[in-house]
UniProtKB/TrEMBL annotation:
KW DNA repair (keyword) present: no
Organism of provenance: Streptomyces ruber
Domain of life: Bacteria
Gene Ontology MF term list: glycine amidinotransferase activity
Family: Belongs to the amidinotransferase family.
Protein name: Glycine amidinotransferase
Length: 387
């Protein structure tokens, strides 16, 4: 209902509709995350945070500094208003007390995390919104932050499909014991061999995946195997989306975590690629065989690591958000990347967003598409090898 008691149709507002097949069709409705209450996570089998120079050495945890949180929230609020000013409907999550201890019958964990990067948790494919499993115990209950939004969408759009992947148990059997004690001591070559073999922190005891490891290209979904997504998670997604071609891909990043700053669709026929993390040759050949141009992103010009508590790479610069096939939101200090994108025919909207990085990502990470105008298309009619 509208605030005056009328329905959306009666008040002239655009009816709520869940629909998004890719990352570039015109954006009409989005979720923007919040930094409020975010904590540095307590150590757990899936992840360790170690910021000795910033007051959180390994083994410690607690709320992010209040000043950092306030600055990040201000930038997120301003971004939400920018989108609203362009006629895009914006929803926001409801933060929990992320400092509280959480538990299931299998484990107890001293803290949660936050609700800044909704892209990690929610995947929109057509008229379906899917809640991902997550693989961090500190993020097991994060879905609760988005339930008010999802309930409202379900009530407003009778065609919406609201799905949740099986909640994982996340017992010790889901993780390789001692991974974080040995992996950092390996050489780069040894780490890359582990990445190619997908011999990382997760076992195959149960399906695990983050939504941000899925890149949507119409009928084709590309699922990156990473620190948070295992082969079993890929298999689950493949069975869940039987009308799609669901491909497993690996990275050449020694710390693969989410695909949306590595293999970034910009518009049909054009993908932006992080040159430091080259995709495997077969995937690149598959795209080129289907007449896609692969453009290597310029080196991040000004994305030095934020001074405190950030686990994001400088390549977060490539974590851009499409407003439509011609318009991209880019972090305002990434001038060289903006110039590159303008040379490719895009209008660039600069967005102050540097303060948000320590809370889990960039412009794409901070959002989830609810509606993009467009229909399901096949952008890869020419099959190739395992693709």
């Amino acid at each position: 209902m509208a605030r005056n008691g009328k329905t959306a149709a009666e008040s002239g507002a655009r009816p709520v509709k869940v629909n998004a097949w890719n990352g570039w069709d015109p954006l009409r409705h989005v979720i923007v995350g919040r930094a409020t209450g975010t904590v540095v996570q307590a150590p757990e089998p899936a992840v360790r945070r170690d910021f000795p120079d910033d007051g959180f050495p390994l083994g410690t945890y607690g709320p992010m500094p209040a000043g950092m949180t306030a600055e990040a929230d201000a930038q997120l609020d301003d971004f939400a208003e920018l989108l609203r000013g362009r006629g895009i409907r914006v929803d926001r999550p409801t933060p929990l007390d992320f400092t509280r201890e959480v538990a299931t019958p299998d484990w107890t964990h001293p803290s949660m995390s936050g609700c800044m990067p909704p892209r990690d948790l929610l995947l929109t494919v057509g008229n379906e919104i899917l809640e991902a499993t997550m693989s961090y115990r500190s993020r097991w209950f994060e879905y609760l932050c988005y339930r008010p939004v999802l309930q409202a969408l379900f009530d407003a759009d009778e065609d919406m499909r609201w799905e949740a992947a099986p909640k994982p148990r996340l017992t010790d059997a889901s993780y390789h014991a001692g991974f974080w004690d040995t992996y950092p001591t390996l050489s780069t070559e040894e780490q890359l061999a582990r990445v190619r073999a997908h011999d990382l922190v997760l076992t195959e005891a149960e399906p695990l995946f983050d939504a941000a490891d899925v890149a949507r290209f119409g009928r084709d979904l590309f699922v990156q195997l990473s620190f948070v997504t295992n082969r079993s998670g890929h298999r689950w997604l493949k069975r869940h989306f039987p009308e799609h071609r669901v491909h497993a891909v690996t990275s050449t990043n020694t710390h693969p975590l989410h695909i949306d700053a590595t293999w970034v669709p910009l518009r049909p026929g054009l993908v932006l690629h992080c040159g430091e993390r080259l995709a495997d040759a077969e995937l690149m050949e598959f795209f080129r065989r289907n007449d896609w141009e692969i453009v290597e992103a310029v080196q991040p010009a000004s994305w030095d690591h934020p001074p405190k508590l950030s686990y994001c790479s400088p390549w977060l610069a490539g974590n851009v958000l499409n407003l439509d096939p011609r318009t991209l939101c880019v972090e305002e200090k990434e001038v060289r990347l903006a110039d590159q994108l303008v040379s490719l025919g895009f209008e660039v909207v600069p967005v102050p967003f540097r303060a948000v990085g320590p809370f889990g990502g960039g412009l794409h990470c901070a959002t989830v598409d609810i509606e993009r105008e467009g229909t399901l298309e096949d952008y890869f009619p020419r099959r190739h090898g395992r693709y």
